[in-house]
Design a protein that fits this description.
Shape: globular
Order of helices and strands: HHHHEEHEHHHHEEEEEEEEHHEEEEH
Helix content: 25-40%
Number of domains: 1
Low-confidence stretches: 1-21
Structural class: alpha+beta
CATH class: Alpha Beta
Number of helices: 12
Strand order of the largest sheet: 2-1-14-13-12
């Protein structure tokens, strides 16, 4: 009889837990793996999921005899309904939609290297006529994308957001199944109405205007019904302390699962349904792989001061916390973001020597005082060490696990300068 009661208790407890955390995905195996190797700092984070709001996805990749990859995700506290500010991770889909849109305009004689001049068409907008970081001094989509992945350049993102147009950018992502994604803001102070307006743009080849894009206005209806408040106080744009939580209700949104899936769709297009893929050419993919994995010191145009933009500047997993130069046999294809105390990264990590490959995605919130916009976040003390250590634990595990067949990784070997 006691056995029956125990079974009933377990069933009730399980049902109650599922009801309470119905949206959360957690794999006890992944939790156990991390804890078995964790430092005291990482254990502190793992023991406080509500404070640090961390989410982790480890994706195993196994190849079949045809070298076709098969994916298996392990989750830890992953909940698409728990808001985090995606920061610069929205630059990934913005760049992909820009390339997709550009491919539809090829008949107009333009490509990602065509000179792209942006006009000012509405309040708050700025014009662009030159790009001193480019080899020819002219702005173009290719160089904007380079800068997005090399150093997470904000102005480059703004220009691609304007080329995409808010309505096209979001509606295309929704059509691909990313219905929870919302990209509604440039990374510069603007009103909601100003962000709905995007600039007139013209493309020029050999001093001839070959294509004009007229100013656009987004008429999309976004679901802002779910209120999102974070922290206990915040500083406003005038540096005044407001003793209320910060309102993220109408900010950008990009769930970690969707970010991870977008990265997979670029690196392994055939692994996702056709309707979810981005319309990119083989040359586009090679271009993306190059700059997703290249380090700032390897780039000549644009070139960067490596004392500021060090090798692991945009590589959170494995390296970020100590700024060390990654070994040549390891490459990380990724897009991170950092803002308001949130750190996020989605990465595909390859060790060409050991034939190791896996995907790793995570987010953490590090804001001990609960005040936003005070620039007092524990990025260095907790955030970056969290990513470095989680990356190391998963890398060592994945490198040592038994694979039936080793992957052929030639498509990810780029020729860096």
């Amino acid at each position: 009889m006691s056995l029956v009661r125990n079974i009933i208790f377990i069933m009730l407890f399980t049902c109650s837990s599922l009801h309470t955390h119905a949206q959360e995905k957690t794999d006890i195996w992944l939790d156990d793996l991390l804890r078995s190797k964790a430092s005291p700092l990482l254990l502190h984070v793992l023991n406080n999921p509500d404070s640090f709001q961390y989410q982790i996805i480890y994706t195993e990749i196994n190849r079949d005899k045809h070298n076709v990859p098969h994916f298996f995700n392990h989750y830890l506290h992953v909940d698409r309904n728990r808001y985090f500010n995606p920061a610069s991770t929205v630059k990934l889909p913005t760049a992909l939609i820009a390339l997709e849109k550009l491919n539809e305009y090829k008949t107009n004689g333009i490509n990602k290297y065509s000179a792209m001049f942006t006009d000012s068409s509405f309040s708050g907008q700025t014009a662009v006529r030159k790009d001193t970081s480019a080899e020819n001094g002219l702005p173009c989509i290719a160089n904007y994308i380079r800068k997005i992945f090399l150093v997470s350049d904000n102005d480059a993102y703004n220009r691609l957001y304007e080329f995409d147009g808010q309505q096209m950018l979001n509606s295309r992502l929704w059509k691909k199944g990313y219905t929870d994604v919302r990209i509604v803001r440039r990374f510069v102070t603007m009103t909601e109405e100003e962000n709905r307006h995007t600039n007139a743009i013209k493309f020029v080849e050999k001093e001839d205007t070959v294509f004009r894009q007229f100013p656009a206005y987004s008429k999309l209806d976004f679901d802002f019904s779910k209120q999102v408040w974070v922290g206990k106080a915040h500083y406003n744009r005038y540096d005044s302390l407001i003793k209320t939580p910060f309102d993220f209700t109408r900010h950008n949104n990009l769930p970690l699962e969707d970010l991870r899936q977008m990265l997979q769709s670029v690196l392994f297009p055939a692994s996702v349904p056709a309707a979810q893929r981005f319309n990119l050419t083989k040359e586009d993919l090679k271009f993306l792989y190059q700059y997703m994995s290249e380090y700032p010191f390897e780039s000549k145009k644009p070139s960067y001061d490596t004392t500021e933009f060090f090798s692991s500047y945009t590589k959170f997993f494995l390296y970020k916390s100590d700024k060390q130069k990654p070994p040549s046999n390891i490459r990380i294809f990724n897009k991170p973001g950092w803002s308001y105390g949130y750190l996020t990264d989605a990465a595909y990590i390859v060790d060409f020597d050991t034939k190791t490959e896996f995907m790793l995605s995570a987010v953490i919130y590090v804001n001990r005082d609960g005040i936003l916009n005070d620039d007092k976040y524990e990025y260095t003390e907790i955030g970056y060490p969290f990513f470095k250590e989680v990356g190391e634990i998963i890398y060592q595990f994945d490198k040592s696990r038994r694979r039936t067949l080793l992957p052929a990784l030639d498509q990810f070997k780029m020729g860096y300068q």
